[in-house]
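Hi there, hope your week has been kind to you so far. Please have a think about how the structure follows from the sequence. I've dropped the whole record in just underneath, so have a look:

_____
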Amino acid sequence: MAASDAPAPVPAATVALNKTAHPFTRDTFEELMRSRFFYTQAFEIYGGVAGFYDYGPPGSALQANILNVWRSHFIIEDDMLEIDSTIMTLADVLKTSGHVDRFTDWMVKDLKTGDIFRADHLVEAVLEARLKGDKEARGLAAVPVDAEKEAKSKKKKVKSTAVKLDDAVVADIESTLAQIDNFDGEGLDGLIKKFEIKAPETGNDVSTPVEFNLMFDSSIGPTGYVKGYLRPETAQGHFINFGRLLDFNNGKVPFASAQIGKSFRNEIAPRQGLLRVREFVMAEIEHFVDPTKKAHPKFADVKDQKLALLPKETQMSGSTDLTEITIGEAVEKGIVDNETLGYFLVRIYLFLTKIGIDPSRLRFRQHMANEMAHYAADCWDAEIQNSFGWIECVGCADRSAYDLTVHSVKTNTKLVVREALDEPVIEEKTVAVLEKKIMGPKFKKAAKIVEDSILGLDEERLDCIGRDLEQKGSSDIQAADGQTYTLTPDFLKIERRVFKSTSREFTPNVIEPSFGIGRILYSLLEHSYWSRAEDADRRVLSLPPSVAPIKCLIVPISSNEAFRPLLKEISRKFRQVGISCRVDDSGASIGKRYSRNDELGTPFGVTVDFASVKYNTITLRDRDTTTQLIGSVDEVVGVVEKLCTYQMEWEGATQMLKTYTGEQAA
């Protein structure tokens, strides 16, 4: 059926793939990304700006398909509420959340040239280069062959030098690298001095680490008086709208809201392509749960799934050895804090492997004490290994009730859940009893502020004020306006009273899985990339059909007009069932047309020739194995639809269609 210049069909049962015949090289990989326009540096013809990238047609389609799978896997399957909040965020919101004061990284500067480095990345890169040089000196690792390309690379890399280190120094460096995320500015400064770390390209001394806020600031409106920021995450939109989300969910928890959108971070030194950018797509989930009930109703469905975990205790001991354990056992042993957090770790794992991430290069690393927020109960990162090392691609944190609490206090808005009790609860409480007729003349305009401040105090503070009133005759408080006011017994009494409660009021805790889509996309492309054993220049992206930019290539053997009606019919039938397809009727050989679409990750291809016009049959080619099957147009379209929607693997297709042997009969 295929033309004479097409590769001979290979029987499906005889194909054995060797995807590791040629070592991965980042230069050839990135050349493919640029030549096929998966992505490129933004403003390229103007010289480009670090940290900004534009996606071309295949990159845009790949990202859209990843997000479609994400939306189906999380929002649809777990019945989440999707929102879309604004990118521009009021400064007061981010001040309250802590981003204005604490959303920082540590940076250092070359004291002579002024070049800027992110401190932890510099330390990590230099120490890793020293370990690499030690291995080279011991004959354990080869010097990179492509040294010329390495030298021409625009990225600031730390070159290794073959120098053998003492075993004790190697152990010290390895221990330090295992804990690199646990160092603050002072700790990083200590490492710079201890290991005598210099600027990589110049050998100059670097400055003491200083904090740098990562948010892009702006102003809202023509006056410039209303300050705003481009959001550094999508999460705050969930918390600000919690009350409305709760109402939409009929006042019940647990529930989850989800959002996909752009975020912005003014990275200090974005030098790792798509892995460290200043504008990026995030997909975030905020799962609101009763703090006393963190069991998950679907945990039993996932409890036997094994994950590769790197607990904080292992890291603190200077090791990076992984613990493979079921999530049920991890929760039972207290390694993972609760069932809901554990449930989402498994869901993250299943999503990443579904879209094509290699499970052997995926781990979950627990945050150590110094890198975990003070309010967080537990936090894990899904890290994916690629040519840059282990890269955080998903964070999954139990944020407790911090976010809702701080926004509630700042805005004087109750962001709570009211839950009816099965049985009434009788309890005694300490309360403040106020004489407002006396407070008005005494405090004038500040009376309401003083009243609200008193009524907002907890029982422990009220008991303390009661003792002061009894023993001293007065007590001072600092009100919400920052002023100090004196309280006296003539308008305030502290009493113990009995209350009957028929409902319970609480602030939900939040479990937050947060996905960096660009990092996942880049890692997926690396994991999918390989070259055919017989020819290193025949490069392939083994993207799963569900996320591949184009699902099926339609290849006529020539541009003969007789093929036009059938090409249109095949294309229409694919698109009617949601399968993206592309007709390639260029003058190149069929083999070359298939080869360049292998580089685009197109999983399937069909060939149309004169026999197709006569018998209404076409061949179906598998990208990875290059095996071909044959069937009617409708049969092939049906099989491809199943292959692209997780209903069938290629082995199943071989059971539904005949193996193509090079000939076709009526």
